[in-house]
Amino acid sequence: MKLYLTPELQAHRRGRFLASLLGISQSPEHGLPQTGFVLMTGEQLQASRESQEECAAWVRQPGCSLLLLPPYQEGSIFHFLDWVVELAPSIAVAVKRALLMSMLEGELTYRLRGVNGACTEDMPLGEPTCHTRYWKGHSNSGLIAATTLPLWSISLLDQAALVHDFLAKIERHCGLPSVTTEETKPQEDAIRPEDVTVLVCSYGFNVATAEGLLSRLKTYAVPLLNLANFDLPESMVRLRNAGLINDNGLTEQGLAHLMGCKYWAFAENLRNEA
User: What is the pTM (predicted TM-score) of this model?
Assistant: First the structure.
Protein backbone atom coordinates (compact mmCIF):
# COMPACT_ATOMS: atom_id res chain seq x y z
CA MET A 1 0.00 0.00 0.00
CA LYS A 2 1.68 3.18 -1.24
CA LEU A 3 0.37 6.16 0.72
CA TYR A 4 0.28 9.76 -0.51
CA LEU A 5 -0.93 13.08 0.88
CA THR A 6 -2.34 15.85 -1.28
CA PRO A 7 -0.02 18.89 -1.37
CA GLU A 8 -2.60 20.89 0.59
CA LEU A 9 -2.75 18.31 3.38
CA GLN A 10 1.00 17.82 3.34
CA ALA A 11 1.52 21.54 3.98
CA HIS A 12 -0.73 21.48 7.07
CA ARG A 13 0.28 20.29 10.54
CA ARG A 14 -2.30 17.49 10.22
CA GLY A 15 -0.51 16.24 7.14
CA ARG A 16 2.90 16.52 8.73
CA PHE A 17 1.65 14.45 11.66
CA LEU A 18 0.26 11.79 9.30
CA ALA A 19 3.47 11.74 7.25
CA SER A 20 5.49 11.14 10.41
CA LEU A 21 3.07 8.60 11.86
CA LEU A 22 2.66 6.54 8.68
CA GLY A 23 6.11 6.98 7.17
CA ILE A 24 4.90 8.85 4.08
CA SER A 25 8.13 10.14 2.54
CA GLN A 26 6.91 11.73 -0.68
CA SER A 27 3.74 12.82 -2.42
CA PRO A 28 3.05 14.17 -5.90
CA GLU A 29 3.59 17.92 -6.20
CA HIS A 30 0.63 18.27 -8.55
CA GLY A 31 -2.40 16.13 -9.29
CA LEU A 32 -2.85 12.48 -8.41
CA PRO A 33 -0.33 9.63 -8.71
CA GLN A 34 -0.79 6.93 -11.33
CA THR A 35 -1.93 4.52 -8.62
CA GLY A 36 -1.83 4.48 -4.84
CA PHE A 37 -3.74 5.41 -1.69
CA VAL A 38 -4.26 9.17 -1.40
CA LEU A 39 -5.33 10.99 1.77
CA MET A 40 -7.20 14.29 1.32
CA THR A 41 -9.36 16.49 3.54
CA GLY A 42 -13.06 16.45 2.79
CA GLU A 43 -13.29 20.23 2.65
CA GLN A 44 -10.64 20.36 -0.08
CA LEU A 45 -12.69 18.06 -2.30
CA GLN A 46 -15.99 19.76 -1.46
CA ALA A 47 -14.60 23.16 -2.45
CA SER A 48 -13.92 22.25 -6.09
CA ARG A 49 -16.26 20.62 -8.61
CA GLU A 50 -13.27 20.26 -10.94
CA SER A 51 -11.38 18.34 -8.26
CA GLN A 52 -14.43 16.12 -7.73
CA GLU A 53 -14.54 15.27 -11.43
CA GLU A 54 -10.82 14.53 -11.50
CA CYS A 55 -11.02 12.29 -8.43
CA ALA A 56 -14.14 10.53 -9.71
CA ALA A 57 -12.31 9.59 -12.91
CA TRP A 58 -9.17 8.56 -11.02
CA VAL A 59 -10.89 6.19 -8.55
CA ARG A 60 -12.55 4.31 -11.40
CA GLN A 61 -9.12 2.91 -12.24
CA PRO A 62 -7.86 -0.24 -10.47
CA GLY A 63 -5.26 0.41 -7.78
CA CYS A 64 -6.52 3.92 -6.97
CA SER A 65 -7.91 4.65 -3.50
CA LEU A 66 -8.92 8.05 -2.14
CA LEU A 67 -9.74 8.55 1.55
CA LEU A 68 -11.33 11.78 2.73
CA LEU A 69 -10.52 12.93 6.26
CA PRO A 70 -11.94 15.65 8.51
CA PRO A 71 -12.45 18.56 8.41
CA TYR A 72 -15.52 18.76 6.18
CA GLN A 73 -18.02 21.40 5.23
CA GLU A 74 -21.56 20.58 6.29
CA GLY A 75 -23.56 19.19 3.39
CA SER A 76 -22.91 17.03 0.35
CA ILE A 77 -19.45 15.55 -0.13
CA PHE A 78 -19.63 14.36 -3.72
CA HIS A 79 -22.01 15.54 -6.42
CA PHE A 80 -22.87 11.99 -7.57
CA LEU A 81 -23.10 10.30 -4.15
CA ASP A 82 -25.74 10.78 -1.46
CA TRP A 83 -23.14 11.18 1.28
CA VAL A 84 -23.91 14.10 3.58
CA VAL A 85 -21.85 15.43 6.47
CA GLU A 86 -23.58 16.80 9.55
CA LEU A 87 -22.12 18.28 12.70
CA ALA A 88 -22.62 15.90 15.58
CA PRO A 89 -20.87 15.17 18.89
CA SER A 90 -20.66 11.45 18.14
CA ILE A 91 -22.01 8.63 16.04
CA ALA A 92 -24.55 6.46 17.78
CA VAL A 93 -24.50 2.93 16.39
CA ALA A 94 -25.65 -0.24 18.08
CA VAL A 95 -22.49 -2.24 17.45
CA LYS A 96 -19.36 -2.97 19.40
CA ARG A 97 -16.79 -0.28 18.68
CA ALA A 98 -13.38 -1.15 17.28
CA LEU A 99 -10.29 -0.05 19.21
CA LEU A 100 -9.54 2.85 16.87
CA MET A 101 -13.12 4.08 17.12
CA SER A 102 -13.00 3.83 20.91
CA MET A 103 -9.82 5.90 21.09
CA LEU A 104 -11.25 8.68 18.93
CA GLU A 105 -14.88 8.61 20.07
CA GLY A 106 -14.56 11.74 22.17
CA GLU A 107 -13.03 13.69 19.26
CA LEU A 108 -15.70 13.02 16.62
CA THR A 109 -17.37 16.20 15.42
CA TYR A 110 -19.04 14.94 12.23
CA ARG A 111 -21.75 12.46 11.31
CA LEU A 112 -21.68 10.81 7.88
CA ARG A 113 -25.03 9.91 6.32
CA GLY A 114 -25.80 8.11 3.07
CA VAL A 115 -26.57 4.72 1.61
CA ASN A 116 -24.42 4.74 -1.54
CA GLY A 117 -21.53 2.32 -1.28
CA ALA A 118 -20.94 0.42 1.94
CA CYS A 119 -19.66 0.84 5.47
CA THR A 120 -16.23 -0.50 6.29
CA GLU A 121 -17.43 -1.90 9.63
CA ASP A 122 -20.09 -4.54 10.27
CA MET A 123 -23.32 -2.56 10.16
CA PRO A 124 -26.99 -3.55 9.85
CA LEU A 125 -28.10 -3.77 6.21
CA GLY A 126 -29.23 -0.36 4.97
CA GLU A 127 -27.78 1.49 7.99
CA PRO A 128 -27.49 5.13 6.83
CA THR A 129 -24.95 6.26 9.44
CA CYS A 130 -21.42 5.02 10.08
CA HIS A 131 -18.00 6.58 10.59
CA THR A 132 -16.49 5.34 7.30
CA ARG A 133 -18.08 4.55 3.93
CA TYR A 134 -16.54 3.56 0.62
CA TRP A 135 -17.86 3.49 -2.94
CA LYS A 136 -16.65 1.66 -6.05
CA GLY A 137 -17.60 2.19 -9.68
CA HIS A 138 -17.41 -1.55 -10.44
CA SER A 139 -15.99 -4.74 -8.96
CA ASN A 140 -12.38 -4.14 -10.05
CA SER A 141 -12.28 -0.36 -9.85
CA GLY A 142 -10.52 1.77 -7.30
CA LEU A 143 -12.56 3.41 -4.57
CA ILE A 144 -13.37 6.61 -2.77
CA ALA A 145 -13.90 6.51 0.98
CA ALA A 146 -14.83 9.08 3.59
CA THR A 147 -14.28 8.84 7.31
CA THR A 148 -15.21 11.04 10.24
CA LEU A 149 -12.32 9.63 12.29
CA PRO A 150 -9.60 12.27 12.85
CA LEU A 151 -6.64 10.07 11.98
CA TRP A 152 -4.33 13.04 12.57
CA SER A 153 -5.28 13.12 16.27
CA ILE A 154 -2.44 13.28 18.79
CA SER A 155 -4.21 10.40 20.53
CA LEU A 156 -2.77 8.15 17.82
CA LEU A 157 0.83 9.28 18.32
CA ASP A 158 2.01 5.76 19.21
CA GLN A 159 -0.65 3.90 17.24
CA ALA A 160 0.83 3.73 13.73
CA ALA A 161 0.06 0.01 13.44
CA LEU A 162 -3.58 0.64 14.35
CA VAL A 163 -3.95 3.34 11.70
CA HIS A 164 -2.18 1.23 9.07
CA ASP A 165 -4.57 -1.61 9.87
CA PHE A 166 -7.56 0.71 9.44
CA LEU A 167 -6.27 1.89 6.07
CA ALA A 168 -5.53 -1.67 4.98
CA LYS A 169 -9.14 -2.66 5.68
CA ILE A 170 -10.22 0.04 3.25
CA GLU A 171 -7.54 -0.80 0.71
CA ARG A 172 -8.56 -4.45 0.52
CA HIS A 173 -11.77 -3.39 -1.26
CA CYS A 174 -9.77 -1.67 -4.02
CA GLY A 175 -9.45 -3.41 -7.39
CA LEU A 176 -5.96 -4.47 -8.38
CA PRO A 177 -4.28 -3.06 -11.50
CA SER A 178 -3.42 -5.67 -14.11
CA VAL A 179 0.24 -6.39 -14.74
CA THR A 180 1.14 -5.28 -18.26
CA THR A 181 3.23 -7.26 -20.69
CA GLU A 182 5.92 -4.60 -20.50
CA GLU A 183 6.13 -4.97 -16.72
CA THR A 184 6.47 -8.76 -16.88
CA LYS A 185 8.87 -8.89 -19.82
CA PRO A 186 12.37 -9.74 -18.59
CA GLN A 187 14.98 -7.12 -19.35
CA GLU A 188 16.99 -9.29 -21.69
CA ASP A 189 19.07 -6.37 -22.95
CA ALA A 190 20.11 -5.14 -19.51
CA ILE A 191 23.88 -4.86 -19.13
CA ARG A 192 25.36 -7.66 -17.03
CA PRO A 193 28.64 -7.67 -15.06
CA GLU A 194 30.34 -9.90 -17.64
CA ASP A 195 29.38 -7.42 -20.37
CA VAL A 196 31.49 -4.75 -18.67
CA THR A 197 34.46 -7.13 -18.85
CA VAL A 198 33.82 -7.58 -22.57
CA LEU A 199 33.61 -3.80 -22.94
CA VAL A 200 37.00 -3.44 -21.23
CA CYS A 201 38.58 -5.95 -23.63
CA SER A 202 36.89 -4.41 -26.67
CA TYR A 203 38.45 -1.07 -25.79
CA GLY A 204 41.79 -2.56 -24.81
CA PHE A 205 42.14 -4.56 -28.04
CA ASN A 206 40.32 -1.98 -30.19
CA VAL A 207 37.94 -4.57 -31.63
CA ALA A 208 34.18 -4.47 -32.08
CA THR A 209 33.20 -8.07 -32.85
CA ALA A 210 33.06 -11.28 -30.87
CA GLU A 211 35.31 -12.96 -33.46
CA GLY A 212 37.94 -10.24 -33.24
CA LEU A 213 37.90 -10.30 -29.46
CA LEU A 214 38.16 -14.09 -29.35
CA SER A 215 41.08 -14.01 -31.77
CA ARG A 216 43.01 -11.55 -29.60
CA LEU A 217 42.28 -13.42 -26.37
CA LYS A 218 43.70 -16.65 -27.81
CA THR A 219 47.11 -15.02 -28.28
CA TYR A 220 47.60 -14.88 -24.51
CA ALA A 221 49.43 -17.82 -22.95
CA VAL A 222 47.60 -17.08 -19.71
CA PRO A 223 43.98 -16.31 -20.68
CA LEU A 224 42.62 -12.96 -19.53
CA LEU A 225 39.13 -14.44 -19.38
CA ASN A 226 37.65 -17.79 -18.56
CA LEU A 227 35.79 -18.08 -21.84
CA ALA A 228 33.60 -20.84 -20.44
CA ASN A 229 31.83 -18.17 -18.36
CA PHE A 230 31.19 -15.83 -21.29
CA ASP A 231 28.85 -15.83 -24.24
CA LEU A 232 30.73 -13.26 -26.31
CA PRO A 233 28.18 -12.93 -29.13
CA GLU A 234 25.35 -12.33 -26.64
CA SER A 235 27.44 -9.82 -24.70
CA MET A 236 28.19 -7.95 -27.91
CA VAL A 237 24.50 -7.86 -28.78
CA ARG A 238 23.61 -6.41 -25.39
CA LEU A 239 26.39 -3.82 -25.63
CA ARG A 240 25.21 -2.79 -29.09
CA ASN A 241 21.58 -2.58 -28.00
CA ALA A 242 22.66 -0.41 -25.09
CA GLY A 243 24.46 1.92 -27.50
CA LEU A 244 27.88 1.26 -25.96
CA ILE A 245 29.58 -0.16 -29.06
CA ASN A 246 29.09 -0.05 -32.83
CA ASP A 247 30.96 -1.30 -35.89
CA ASN A 248 33.85 1.06 -35.16
CA GLY A 249 34.31 0.14 -31.52
CA LEU A 250 33.17 1.94 -28.39
CA THR A 251 30.73 4.80 -28.87
CA GLU A 252 31.03 8.04 -26.91
CA GLN A 253 28.43 6.65 -24.54
CA GLY A 254 30.39 3.41 -24.22
CA LEU A 255 33.64 5.26 -23.51
CA ALA A 256 31.92 7.40 -20.88
CA HIS A 257 30.46 4.27 -19.30
CA LEU A 258 33.87 2.62 -19.21
CA MET A 259 35.64 5.69 -17.83
CA GLY A 260 33.11 5.80 -15.02
CA CYS A 261 33.69 2.24 -13.86
CA LYS A 262 36.45 0.84 -11.66
CA TYR A 263 38.09 -1.05 -14.56
CA TRP A 264 39.06 2.04 -16.54
CA ALA A 265 42.73 1.96 -15.47
CA PHE A 266 43.02 -1.70 -16.50
CA ALA A 267 41.38 -0.95 -19.85
CA GLU A 268 43.89 1.85 -20.52
CA ASN A 269 46.83 -0.40 -19.65
CA LEU A 270 45.49 -3.09 -21.95
CA ARG A 271 45.12 -0.55 -24.75
CA ASN A 272 48.68 0.70 -24.31
CA GLU A 273 50.07 -2.83 -24.42
CA ALA A 274 48.10 -3.83 -27.50
Answer: 0.62
